[in-house]
Model the fold of this input.
Amino acid sequence: MASPPRTFKKGASNLVSSQMGAEVRASDAALIERITQRDEAALAALYDRYAVMLSSVLNRILRDNQASEEILQDIFFQLWRMPSRFDASRGSLPGWLLVIARNRAISRLRRHNPAAGDELGENSVVLPVNIESAVAQKQLLDRVKRALDGLPAEQRACVELAYFEGLTHSEIAARTGDPLGTVKTRLRSAVVTLKRTLHQAAS
Amino acid sequence: MANGHPTRDEDFDLLALGALEGDEKQAIEAHAASCADCARKLAEARGRVAMLSLAAPEAAPSAAVQQRLMAQIRSGSSAAEPAQQPHIARVPASAGAPGAPGTFARWWNAILIPAAAALAALTIFLWRENRALDRQLAALHASMAQQQHELHEANEVAELMTSQSTITVPLAQQSGMPKGSAHVMYNEKMGMMMYDGEITPAPAAKTYQLWLVPVTGNPISCGVFKGEPDHWMMKVPEGMPAKWFAVTLEPAGGMPHPTGPMVLMGSVS
Done:
């Protein structure tokens, strides 16, 4: 049975530590439900669960700690303001948060090209595995790293340019100097391999 | 595209990755918006692509972020990104652009936060400096007081030694007593005396004691000592004419009145 909603007046760190046991066991969906009832401890628990993961990708994209922390804070603030925006029936919370974080970071990175930021931002994200626990996150991290390490270097470079810098096929070709067709082939091969590898690992 | 469906499933991954562009991108997006099966495939592709985030080097946020977040939700303001629109997954094109409302707040943050940190550091530095200066000042006061005390004593010694009214009384060894000799300088008007002498060290549990024996009244103790070279100066009641000075051997710590044998003795002539 989920813990009843409670409101805490203490500081965030005390709030987190005092509720650690109950919050660690609560599912993302349960915590989101509690956030709709204005339970600060539930937000703090989700922050504890996913802040490092989101901060890591924000920092990787922006390479600017202050900007990363601003976005991280705002993502959780918006989650607090509008928890109903997340629809658990349509996907997983960490996947959704990761997509938002990446979109926000790339939008910030490419602020002189507003159209790029406006294209991004999706709502339905399905992760093949549940990563609500730190152990599951670690296991998935190992799988992703193994999958990326298994790619040829030029394919991996294309994937990283696309994902962490938000570059399209033609932008990658312009950056690397490789023919557009070569870039397309490399990226297509890479995503096919990643899909197969990650599915095998998940199953 | 076959019947509007992408011919290859990896197209969804490429779309989620952001690599597609132009007509190809728009065609898949438009189709997925009206095809539940392709929308599901796109959602799965987004999940696979999102997992690439985990390849980023771990970078934990500072504890201050959570503290600011909790303070923000209590105040209800959107301090971190005031320019954001309500849709959490959408980023306005103007976000972060120069001139946007959030830019002003960020500029202020960029100026005020370092300024506040610098002011706090300066305050701590000045406070510590002040503490150090206070300690130095106290030490200087103590040193000055000590120097004034020593100067006063030196003046008294000089006055005692140069005053016409100071008498010097030699103290002679008494028969059968430990070997020793001493003299006392005494100024009745100043009420000052100075002893300077050397006696064989007193036996265990014994001590020597110097006495001023006035013309009238009981002997006055002028200090206890263990022997060997000794010299000291002390205040005694003013205007008390001395008859003689004596050193006796007393129990350790001295006695209120002479009780032991007289070791040294000298008469005021």
